[in-house]
Q: What sequence folds into this?
């Protein structure tokens, strides 16, 4: 468990979701079902089904991005899980929704189950939490609990849309989630239309790890899926690349995090790649900075911010002019 949590924070493969919700009504566009009023709903997750009878008022978010999804729907959790490597309280995309509220923490690397119980929750949201069966059993004794809706066994990687649909269903705000989903999907589509050179370009999203290896993220990781929404092609699966195999990163575009531009270019093996020499590389800095963390949250709030932050850099990296210098993050 602890190893999995650390990999999520530093850049290992993350989340996959196959979400399903059910009740007596017809299936909605998200693949969920529920009454028009929203309750009761039954939500499928890793450890079975959870019934939510009424609209929750005391929500605790125990995963790595659920707080953003709740905030996007106007719900401020009464407690949340802290981020492992980022000053998440200052994340720019959430400040308006937080409205100056500082939400209490109930753990970061490890959840504090006693602190969660002390909040008297009536819903515990953990679709991206990597909790185990024992934790789930304890938490579900406190309140209806949604465990991981993907990222386990052979369940495929989920999109932010799927997670948003589940959170919206759980909070009784399915229509709001659908409306915001459509709005953000339109922003992705407009950005791609304004930058047709993105479409079909191969892209590597790589994180430099502490041991000198490079984590290349694929479609099984929510952070890399951001680039597919802009039209780029990415690998099917994440893998660790050893320093002597860095040619695997020599794609049309390289987006790299974990170290700064100068530190990375000091590596002769990396500097020799065409994608680096021709300035088709986007350097987004350490894991504690905003853009890598926006990808980590992969929420309706952070992705809107990420589009604005990444687009100028990706445009410069794909303009077919080696003389263009890709700007560093603003």
A:
């Amino acid at each position: 468990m602890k190893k999995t949590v650390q990999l999520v924070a530093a850049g290992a493969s993350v989340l996959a979701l196959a979400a399903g919700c059910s009740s007596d009504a017809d299936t909605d566009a998200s693949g969920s079902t529920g009454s028009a009023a929203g309750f009761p709903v039954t939500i499928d997750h890793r450890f079975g089904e959870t019934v939510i009878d009424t609209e929750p008022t005391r929500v605790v978010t125990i995963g790595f991005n659920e707080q953003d999804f709740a905030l996007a729907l106007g719900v401020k959790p009464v407690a949340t899980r802290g981020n492992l490597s980022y000053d998440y309280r200052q994340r720019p995309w959430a400040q308006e929704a937080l409205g100056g509220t500082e939400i209490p923490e109930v753990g970061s690397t490890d959840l504090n189950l006693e602190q969660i119980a002390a909040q008297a929750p009536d819903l515990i949201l953990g679709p991206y939490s990597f909790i185990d069966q024992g934790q789930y059993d304890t938490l579900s004794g406190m309140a209806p609990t949604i465990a991981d809706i993907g990222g386990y066994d052979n369940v495929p990687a989920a999109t932010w849309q799927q997670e948003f649909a589940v959170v919206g269903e759980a909070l009784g705000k399915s229509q709001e989630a659908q409306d915001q989903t459509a709005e953000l999907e339109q922003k992705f589509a407009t950005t791609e239309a304004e930058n047709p050179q993105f479409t079909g370009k191969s892209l590597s999203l790589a994180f430099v790890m502490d041991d000198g290896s490079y984590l290349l993220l694929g479609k099984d990781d929510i952070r890399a899926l951001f680039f597919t929404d802009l039209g780029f092609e990415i690998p099917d699966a994440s893998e660790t690349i050893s320093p002597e195999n860095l040619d695997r990163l020599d794609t049309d575009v390289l987006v790299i995090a974990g170290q700064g531009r100068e530190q990375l270019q000091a590596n002769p093996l990396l500097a020799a790649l065409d994608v680096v020499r021709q300035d088709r590389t986007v350097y987004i800095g350490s894991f504690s900075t905003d853009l890598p963390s926006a990808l980590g949250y992969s929420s309706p709030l952070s992705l809107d911010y990420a589009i604005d932050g990444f687009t100028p850099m990706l445009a410069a990296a794909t303009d077919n002019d080696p003389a263009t210098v890709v700007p560093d993050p603003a």
